[in-house]
Here is the input.
Amino acid sequence: MDRDMTVTRCEDHVGIVQLNRPKVYNALSFDMLDELARALEALDADDSVHVILIHGDDRAFSAGADIKDMADSDAVSWYLNDPLSVWDRIPRIRKPIVAAIAGHALGGGCELAMMCDVIVASKTARFGQPEIKIGIIPGAGGTQRLIRAVGKAVAMDMILSGRVLTADEALAAGLVSRVVEPDRYLEEAMNLAREMATKLSPIALRVAKEAVLKAHDVGLSEGLREERVLFHLLTATEDHTEGMKAFIEKREAHYAGK
Here is the structure.
């Protein structure tokens, strides 16, 4: 088994996770996914970490699932062992996740990107769900999250034909948040994550993420009710008091995450 398939470090309240299988374009084996999920869960539980950043390398965020993991499995073993359930752990991370993406983000790589909250893409980034070309469909949320991100027309094109979007096309379609020059994408993503982690309330960040994601899962009326409850919750925090006071006093706020 590969060693150190993910590399984790912390800087300025940002937990940084690097996908680290460069020889196979960061292909996502089930072992690597488990290691990634454990790293994210540890960062989520660490009070000193306010924001998480995920990145690959300049050639690939991830080119997709490791086909060797999949080729020898049969339907019964898939059903009984449910190896795809490891993917369910990633959307449970409550802290904001910023993705810095260059090169390939295909198949499982694109699905992982869509589980992140803000995507900063290099102009070299390419996004796609090409599973149809090997006789399968996306199995880690691609058919569900992609249509919510880019709409039915583009999602159908990508999933049924294997179309790959350029970074600019992904931005226009609503799949990514920002597109920057190749030599700046990681710096831009880190600066964004650092600014969020050091200048904003960590409680408000988590609650804001929860409120926005709720809009994916429920109707408007229920989503509005949930937003109101979460808004009321934040008014009881020390960070809310500090933020208001700092604004009135025209100074930088110092949040304690309480």
